[in-house]
Specification:
Layout (H helix, E strand, L loop, with lengths): L2 H40 L4 H40 L1
Helix pairs in contact: 1-2
Length: 87
């Protein structure tokens, strides 16, 4: 393996992480912002409220897109093993 191939595999790995984690992070951030606005308006400052909603959103995203996430990770792992075998 040369350095160009290794840097390409690392770049692809970072992109896979962004694709897999992006939906969960963005949706939990959106829920956090909406709940912060709701808590500021109603002056309810309960810490567990935002945590419960964020965890619920992450679980729903995992249930809906979990198979796609796993397939993306498996494809990347296969490409890594193929590169190791060839290199």
């Amino acid at each position: 393996m040369d350095t160009a191939m290794i840097s390409e595999l690392l770049r692809e790995g970072v992109w896979v992480v962004i694709k897999v984690c992006g939906p969960m992070l963005l949706l939990s951030m959106l829920v956090g912002v909406l709940l912060a606005i709701f808590q500021a308006v109603t002056q309810i400052h309960e810490q567990t409220l935002s945590f419960i909603f964020k965890v619920t959103v992450v679980i729903i995203v995992l249930l809906v897109a979990g198979s796609w996430m796993m397939e993306t990770l498996l494809d990347y792992a296969r490409s890594l093993f193929e590169a190791m075998r060839m290199g």
